[in-house]
Design goal:
single chain, mainly alpha, 3-stranded antiparallel β-sheet, 3 strands, elongated
Length: 171
């Protein structure tokens, strides 16, 4: 497999060096401040908002029973929050395993347990991330559920749910 020298890159002391020196970029490890937790929470809330509103309107389209819609919305809220929490836990735990293995490979010559523990503490906690994911889904899912909980007219409830669910998505 032949590659031209202009496209080959070499990682040297944290800097990407291109052999022809036309282009150089600094390569840095992502810091905790680089992760935008607010955007992740917004995505989880949007997921909850759309999922619960869709489940409730889907059940309402089959049977115009407000109690059935609310029950389906509540069941979807619990199931969705559990699903988000479990999915986030598995994803972060897998990433933690990968990072831990990488740390062990890098420190294979120098086995310093205190240093390894310090690095592990900087990594994301699977439990905290799963709780945050479930909470953001719950917050988003409660919006259409609470908007519909106190309305007794089916048509008014559908209009209110569509309005209440669409407004945050537009914003």
């Amino acid at each position: 497999m032949a590659t031209s020298a202009t496209h080959e890159k070499v990682h040297h002391a944290g800097v990407l060096v291109y052999p022809n020196d036309i282009e150089q970029k600094k390569c840095k490890e992502p810091k905790e401040s680089d992760f935008d937790y607010f955007q992740r929470a917004i995505l989880g809330a949007n997921d909850g908002l759309v999922s619960i509103a869709s489940v409730m309107m889907g059940v309402g389209a089959v049977k115009r029973d407000i109690k059935a819609m609310l029950l389906a919305g509540f069941a979807g809220l619990v199931a969705g929050a559990c699903s988000m929490a479990i999915g986030e836990f598995v994803a972060v735990y897998t990433q933690l395993d990968v990072e831990t293995a990488q740390i062990k490979r890098e420190n294979s010559n120098i086995i310093n347990e205190k240093e390894t523990v310090k690095v592990k503490e900087k990594l994301l906690s699977p439990f905290q991330e799963s709780v945050a994911s479930a909470f953001s889904f719950l917050v988003g899912g409660l919006v259409p559920l609470m908007a519909a909980a106190f309305i007794t007219n089916y048509y008014v409830m559908v209009i209110v749910m569509v309005a209440v669910s669409s407004l945050p998505l537009v914003v």
